[in-house]
Structure formats: structure tokens, C-alpha cells
Amino acid sequence: MNLETEPRPHEPTEVSLAQFVGYFLWLGTVGFGGPIALAGHMQQDLVDERRWISKQHYLDGLALAQLAPGPLAAQLAIYLGYVRAGVVGATAVAVVFVLPSFLMVLALSAAYVRFGGLAWMQGMFYGIGAAVIGIITRSAFKLTKLTLGKDKLLWGIFVVLGVSTAWTSKEIIWLFLLAGTPLPSGTFCPAFCSKAFTSE
């Protein structure tokens, strides 16, 4: 009798804590584009290229970061640090990821206030704004494909919440909660309803 086994997803590549934390120090220092762009960098670098983090862990962390108030990219980074090295990893990643931008903003703010606005800084902000929009658009597109895939129900939720948010100019919290409401069976609506969408 032949036993069929499901293919196992790739196991994350072993990496030292120093290398893992070093990546977030680099990303926190040179990463631009805001939370969506930084989350996109993490997905490309840690999941697709280096394979230090599994796709499922990344998606779980992204969902957790989106649910919690506060900076999405930092929360995702902290979660990934916890996955790799527990509390020590989460703490180290949090410090090195946030510290560079804190120091940069502190220095630029002091210079801006001290000199009453710098012409070169204003010109830089003007040009960077357009570039950042392009980075965010690319990252948002990649995250949409990764998170929604070919799931028709998830795309339906995406469209409904996108339209409601654009129409009302605010997030309607009960719609977000409804999207992940557990059913009496203990399953979640997206997982349960996806089968109904794909069944003949």
C-alpha cells in the first residue's frame, strides 16, 4: 500500500541572533517608505530570499501587527524577533530597529527648530515624498498578493473594507471584527467560507 504524504513547507534557515538582529539594525537605518514598505522589505528579505522566517510566521506576525495599535513595522519586527529567539530576540530587535530612526528624527528636529527650517531639508522632503509613494505602492501590491492569494472570500473582504474605508474616510471597527468572527464550530469565517466559495 502506498502512503501519500503532503509536501512539507521549507524549514527556516538557521541563523545566529547576531545576524538576525544585524539585519534589523540595517533595515532600521536605511529603510524608507513607512510601515508598509518596511513590512514588504521584511517579506522579501527574510521570507523569500534568506528564508530566515517561514511564510506562515510572517503572515501571523503581519496579522498581529495590524490588529494591535501602534507602529506596524516595529510590531512585526518584534514578533519576528520573538519567533527566532524569544524575549531576548524580541527585545534586541525592538531596540536596534527603532533606535536609528529615533536618533535621526531627533537630530533633524533639533536642526529644523534651531535654524527655523532648512532650505536643503525642505527640498529633500519635496522629492522624497514622491519616491516614497512609489515604494509604498509596490510594497502594498506585493503584500496584497501574499496575504490574499487566490482566496475569493478574502478578496471580497478586501473590496468591502476598502470601499467602506474610502467612502467614510475612517475604519469601521465592527466590519474588521466581523471579518474574523469565530463561528460556533470554533473555526473562523474566512477559512470556513472559503470552502463554500471553492466547492462545486
Question: What's the short version?
Answer:
The chain has 200 residues and is mainly alpha-helical. It is built from eight helices and no strands.
Overview of this protein structure:
With 200 residues, this protein is mainly alpha-helical. It is 76% helix and 0% strand. Helix 2 packs across helix 5 and helix 3 crosses helix 4. It starts with 16 loop residues before the first helix and ends with a helix.
Tell me the strand percentage band. under 5%
Output mean pLDDT: 77
The level of helicity is over 70%
What series of H and E elements makes up the topology? HHHHHHHH
State the end-to-end CA separation: 30 Å
Number of discrete helical segments: 8
Give the overall shape, derived from the CA principal axes. Answer: globular
Low-pLDDT residue spans: 1-8, 183-200
Tell me the quaternary state: single chain
Structural class: mainly alpha
Major β-sheet, in short?
A: none
- For the CA atoms, what is the radius of gyration? 20 Å
The total beta strand count reads 0
